[in-house]
Amino acid sequence: MSGTATAFSESPNRSYPLSPSQAVPTLAPMLKNVLPSVVNISIQGTIAVQQHPLMNDPSFRRFAPQMPKQRRTQGIGSGVIVDADKGFIITNNHVIDHADTIFVTLHNKQKLKAKLIGTDAETDIAVLQVEAKDLNSIPLGDSDKLQVGDFVVAIGNPFGLSHTVTSGMVSALGRTNLGIEGYENFIQTDASINPGNSGGALIDLRGRLIGINSAILAPSGGNVGIGFAIPINMAKMIMHQLLEHGEIKRGLLGVQIQDLNTDLADAMDLKGIHGALVSRVTPKSAAEKAGIKAADVIVAVNGKKITGANSLRTNIGLKRVGEKVSIELYRDKQLQTVKATIGGAVIPEQLAASSSDMPLFKGATLKELSIKEPYQGVEQGLLITEVQANSPAAQVGLMNGDIILAVNKQEVATLAELTQAAKSSQNQLLIHLQRGQSFLYIVIK
Description:
By secondary structure, the protein is of the alpha+beta class. It is built from ten helices and 27 strands.
């Protein structure tokens, strides 16, 4: 052979231009406008260190090493500017939880101290505010119009890597029963979401915000293509309530519900129907006033399909108190429509008293025990039936199932006695309680 054969007929560095009628697909122009709306969030704070119950025993404490009651914590996350004029930013509640100080870093590297406007742990939404000129806000989309298969882009701060962009599609809608939040209606996406992305933006290809990135399913510790975002329509409702009231006033229909499973649907001759089966209607509730009855199956609220108990709980819980809704339900195999006015969440009398009169017990629901209603054989005391996460009661170590026997060395059997005993010291209480088969004293302050 006179010549040497080559693997390439052309230089490997040669480019292949498209015809004039073709355009190179790129998201760069859209992202150029959107990226300044996404911010990095860093927090500094303190959290209470759970003390071992034996530390309440003076004889044990003499020989045990002294442990700090609090520890410093730091964290990072992401946020989205939704109102440039007023400086409002949406992020996740878990990003700023336990924060004493919150800093926001803009796309231009400017670092600002943020003010916390309000949070809602049940939906994992928080609203911040910063003071700065020339902020860039992101246009809001309509998450109710999303479809499985729509392309989406996630922007955030994964592992501290500022303004990282990943792409994917909507994998599923209306994800519930994940145990991540109290009210769940997630957008599922395969766009890569990793630690630090929380609170960042999920946008459509037109650059509109359609979700707040919140969580991932990561059995191996990294991204496996299953991420979850809070729909922007849900986040908007929460933000408006936080701005208007400073807290969330949850709507309440006044029903106990369960999923309509296949066996129940067959027994009720409603094969193929999905919805929330009403097992009980609370007297004098919004549901009773609307004419809803036990054995009704709720299938839609304001035209939005209800797929089960969690679906109805989320739908109603995000409604405003006093809002009028149209409810479609099956009764005796007949589809009917009723009108209801959403009521407010009823706070148990015991909890209301404990929250206002005794701030140290805030977040604990108390039940008076008696001979007729004992608990584990105990007939006198106050049973803690619920402790809200991150509440003052939880932070001082009170737990579900604890039985308060005495406060400041005064025996208590009723809420009134507890209130009276606590009046002697509002800033510090000596609590004698039973936990399982153990008896212990704790000091809360």
